[in-house]
Amino acid sequence: MSLLDEVLSKNNIEAYKKVYQNKGAKGVDGVTVYEFRDYLDKHFEEIKERIKTRKYKPSPVRKVYIPKDNGDKRGLGMPTVIDRVIQQAIVQVLTPIYEKQFSETSYGFRPKRLCEMAIIKALEYFNDGYDWIVDIDLDKFFDNVCHDKIISLILKTVKDGDLVLLIRKYLVAGVMENGVVQETKKGTPQGDNLSPLLSNIMLNELDKELERRGLRFVRYADDCLIMVRSEKAANRVMDSIIRYIEKKLGLKVNATKSKVARPKDIKYFGFGFYIKPGQDNWRPKPHIKSIQKFKRKLKQITKRSYSISLAIRIQRLNYVIRGWINYFRIADMKGKMKEITSHLNRRIRCLLWKQRKTCKGRYTRLIRLGVSKIKVKELNGSRKSYWNNSMNPTIHIVISNKRLKANGLVFPLDHYTKVHIEL
């Protein structure tokens, strides 16, 4: 059985189930994953025959833009559902083959590998004395992949010409933006199922070159850190590796963003690094920009102008809190979580106190909870802002931590204590 036959086998083409789970936006045909299930059952044999006779033509991807943290926008290519399914089927057959070739210190888009594994390996190198970092920034990597180069690399491993031709068809399928189809002479669209594997095939060449030179590195997708023992060695490595990337791989390096740095000066997938006072080992922490982004999300959900019920507000807060802390579970941040928990609870108290808009409503509630009439009158007559009043001990009685937990709120400090992995 050829590799293409494996890709198109009925069991493998059930890859649509993964596409269904991942959902994703519509492609240029406007078909959703929900509408596709019946279509696949009816037309599977026809699709299979068109691919095997080389008559199948992938549709252009639909270009969409999502905001980046720095204010720029990242372009994503959304394939049609049928193309996502076929690409996923290709990935499922080729991944086990390439996994045997990929580097042990490459972590992005690979089975059973997490970003935190790259962070842990980087820390291991830092603490072994390799704490001068060559931070290479590839300029718009996915947009600049040379089609001929990636196909030549695939041909070294994949000897099935029909399958390689199908992959090339996806590379040149084109992009539709504002109703106009544009040719794709280079690059592989971020957002499709095939690009992550193709990016690893391309950058595996860089991994092997670094290994050949005996260099220590970690790579997650197109973000690569090379670790050496001295600033002089780092500058030398950066110059030679930039030449290799640009001449041998045909990629572009952003010279203004690439740099030689110490661990404390870099941000790697949201993590920063520091040395505890009195110790000599590097430790992980969330980068200050990651903390700020987390706080902005919590602030957005707890805005008084954000008109939703308390139950939905807590549900959305819990989703953000669990997701963010789970991602940074290996980081040192107990003090920061204590601070954020206190601030979050105060914002919720402020919010709930303002919602009790009339003095009569507040008076009744406070008296029912056993607060003295004198304290109730003092609070109701206060000219302080809602924010300042949220620190009043009486309000803490009405809206206690225990009551917030009873309403289902996940406290950041509690969740961090629960999931934290000490390194």
UniProtKB/TrEMBL annotation:
The protein's Enzyme Commission number: 2.7.7.49
Cross-referenced PROSITE patterns: RT_POL
SUPFAM superfamilies assigned: DNA/RNA polymerases
Start and end residues of each Reverse transcriptase domain: 47-273
InterPro entries: DNA/RNA_pol_sf, Group_II_RT_mat, GrpII_Intron_Splice-Mob/Def, Mat_intron_G2, Rev_trsase/Diguanyl_cyclase, RT_dom
Entry keyword annotation includes Transcription: no
Signal peptide (residue range): none
GO molecular function, one term: RNA-directed DNA polymerase activity
Transferase in keyword set: yes
Keywords: Nucleotidyltransferase, RNA-directed DNA polymerase, Transferase
CDD domains per record: RT_G2_intron
Pfam families for the chain: GIIM, RVT_1
UniProt enzyme class: transferase
NCBIfam families in alphabetical order: group_II_RT_mat
Protein name, as recorded: Group II intron reverse transcriptase/maturase
Species in which this protein is naturally found: Candidatus Coprosoma intestinipullorum
Primary gene name: ltrA
